[in-house]
UniProtKB/TrEMBL annotation:
InterPro entries: DNA/RNA_pol_sf, Retrovirus_Pol_polyprotein, Rev_trsase/Diguanyl_cyclase, RT_dom. Pfam families: RVT_1. One of its GO terms (biological process) is DNA biosynthetic process. It comes from Scylla paramamosain (Mud crab). Residues 27-104 form the Reverse transcriptase domain. This is Reverse transcriptase domain-containing protein. Coiled coil: none annotated.
Amino acid sequence: MSSRHLMDVRTTNCSMEKEICSFIMPQGLFPYNVLSFVLVSASATFQRRVVNHVTHGLAGTAAYIDDLVVAMNTWEKHLQHLRLLFTHLSQAGQSLNVAKSWFTRSTVT
């Protein structure tokens, strides 16, 4: 998925995160508008969002940070499952980077 750096801080289940995670410059105090991965909990926050909003209820789908794997027994089920995953991604405001995506692989490394 290509939008982890675009995750709106207001969608992170922590109402104070935007205030807490501000940085100070000579010109004033500036809050992050998107999730900054310099924060220790950023990967876990993004992972939780992926699991809760994208892969929830999709058996045969595994997520690790911004990687997704779909494994099904038959080609027909696999295609059907991919369609569901794409729908979930769209509904969650996420997208795939097609150039970095692999489809129809029999093994994953």
